[in-house]
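Students often ask why we bother predicting the structure of a whole assembly rather than each chain alone. The short answer is interfaces. A chain on its own may look different once its partners are present, and contacts between molecules only exist in the joint model. In this exercise we take two input lines together and write out one structure for the complete complex. Read the inputs first and try to guess which parts will touch.
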Amino acid sequence: MSMGWKAIHRWLGLTLGALALVLGLSGALLTVDPVQQAWQAPGAAGDLPVATVVERVERTIQGIEELRRLPSGVVAVHAFDGDQARAVRIDPTDGAILGPYQPSALPRWVKNLHRQLLLGDAGRWGAAATALAMLVLSLSGLVLLLRRMGGWRHVAGRVRGTLAQRVHVVSGRIVLAVLLLSSATALYMSATTLGLVALDAEPEPEVASVVNGQPDIAGARIALLQQVRLKDLRALNFPDATDPEDAWKLNTRQGETWLDRYSGEVLATQPASTAQRLYDWALLLHAGEGAWWTWAVLLGLTGASIPLFWVSGLLIWWRARQDRPRITNNSPLAQADMLIFVASESGSTWGFAEALHSALIGAGHRVHSAPLERFGLGPAARQVFVLAATYGEGQAPAHAGGALARIAALPVGRVPVTVLGFGDRQFPAYCAYAEQVDSMLRERGWPVLLPLERIHQQSAQQFALWGEALAAALGEPLTLDLRPRLPATTALRLVSRQDYAGREGQPAAILRFTWPARSARERLHGRGLARFDAGDLIAIVPPGSPVPRYYSLASGSADGFVEICVRYLPGGLCSTWLLGLQPGDQVPAFIRENPGFALPASRRPVLLIGAGTGVAPLAGFIRRNERRVPMHLWFGARDPARDYYFRPEIERWQEEGRVASVQTAFSRVPDGGGYVQDALRRDAERVRQLVSQGALVRVCGSRPMAHGVAETLDQILAALRLSVAQLKARGRYAEDVF
Amino acid sequence: MNKKPALTALAAACVLALPALAQSRTVTLTTQLKNYGGDGAYLAVYLTDAKGAYAGTLWVAGGKTKYYKHLADWNRLSAGDAKRLAGVTGASVGAGRKLTVTADLADALIDAGYEIHVDAAVEDMRDSPSEIRVPLTSAGAGKAQAGKQYIQAFTYQLQ
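Now the answer. The structure tokens for the assembled complex follow.
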């Protein structure tokens, strides 16, 4: 169904979105009435008996026909003054006239536009269809929202992506419930108007007051009117002066009651039908006409937000269309001997598919590439490759949701199927989807050419190694020429550098860049440098290489600069180039999100553990700790004179309370404290205390360092019967390793 | 709603021919609405007999049955008439417009204590049951009667 929901959402939005826009905006305008009426309504008088109100109103107004209490609390009186009909608002506490009553301040066409698109009865069907579309859009939107955010638990989390995506998701998160309710109630009201649901259970009873020579009873003396409170009143119709058999008619939420004009006795009652009560609720929720004027405001804002959805949705669709993979020389399935099936979330996996595709063509094969959900074998097939990315917590990419079940249902073929997984080791569900596909194929007994291989962070090197293994297995020369599908880069300009001696022969520097200002158009399309936070990665593409290098960010967009900490690696193309830069030089770069590592907004204490240049993202977290969340830093370096990065800043942040405690360990000076693990061990008691308070842990450094820290923490936490693996599974522990 | 003020809705209704008396006359009923500044009006034109009992529906303007309860007198009196809408419904009548309908009525109904009623209702405005109530007589033909809420003039012509 995954494919289904996304397709439904997209196509309904594209086709009926424009109509929804009209209904949303006109609906927003219509909420002006209930809000305005709520302003006009006099204060609390709801507990007054209706009889008292009748008595007071009759003192000021002659010839009353009807007394009506609107859901907003406004009390309106319709009367005949001689020949002249009048409608006034009154104050029920003293019967004083407050002013003329007008049902609506808006032109009638606004309502007609909202209900029938100004097209008469045909338009009512159109409006109902739009309401249905809106309901389906809201439901599919909810499914897609949950999938994107990784379930209900994370639904309030930070939204990533282009501005259009963020606008779409964030506003959806806020107004989705209201939209669902509005469209469902609209459908019910349409059904009553179009005659699909009958509101009246039975016709009104025949009633007549019993004429016996008595004078009319005063309204104030009628027992029932003394019992009913104003807040329960809908309308009270007074008997017609010229018709001796006419009766009082009392309308409340429960139904209607007729009262004899001479005796005040009940002549007949008719309870409201269930359909009518439902309708009353639907109207209240849909139109916001009631005591809750705040609800009307919310409804209005929701209606007004629809243009936002529509425009951002169109932009998202347009962007995805342009990013669609374009495979050249794709043979039909029936003729191809090499088949490639791809499950890709953002499209990056298609870049690898393209490389494999053209390498196989170069080796003289006929190749067919298709999305994974179209998995199947042609008569000429000799090898099948599945390239699968993993999304969120181990789900399939959105388009390939049903693929697993589909493949499992196919008869087992004789053609080997080789799976290549793409993912990120930082996530517990690293390549989980590829593993699912692979183990399903193996269990079903499909042959295999190469065992499952996992590619970390789109590593070109790993992919090239896999290509060599593939060439050997096929017995053919094969050159995988990966041209990564890189996002557009932005030219960053170096504004300052802070040099450190670093290790022997390996100097380092903290580099600070700025980016060119983005126009509104670029923001909307997600062009230019994306928004980023400390802990995200910046990809830098050095001259002479198509493959970007990733650095952890020590700053966020809010800081107004890009800051990284770079250490010289002997022979390293990118670090050599970066460390040779002078202020003013430019660097092509783009942002790569690192959502598992970013800190969620919470008051929990945070343990920041870093070594060497790995302190950079941790420094970034501290820098933006405006809320003074208790952050504790353990920092391991070699020599305070050579590689204590960010030292002056860290000392200042500690004075400002942005970091609660700082422990350092220097491994290359006497009595320096050893490694960062040793510092942790010395603080074991405090670490246990913080973790038992629910602390989050972030570790950044080299792979051996991260491994050592995890071992040390496992020892420290054993007393709490906790492990790093458990903390990871609960989303409390994340690593950024290089 | 169409805004042409003088557009006339013409319709023919022939329901009230008593079987025993073949002789009938064509009655033309004209209802001119005021410019009351609201949506199209729902109107029910019907007859009651000398005892005030419902005798038949001549015309109902407005197609949504959901709103018929607002034509309260007609809706109540005609509830037992399963064919009350047969062939006698049309669109609601806009403010300031004129509704003209014709009906074939048995001679025996004229000058026999029968009354013509018009119930009127407009959305978001007050219901006006039996806004018009005039005797069906030869003498009353051609005389305009004003309603108090929505109807500027109601007349009927006998032919």
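Check your guess against this: Residues 598 and 621 of chain A are 9 Å apart (CA to CA).
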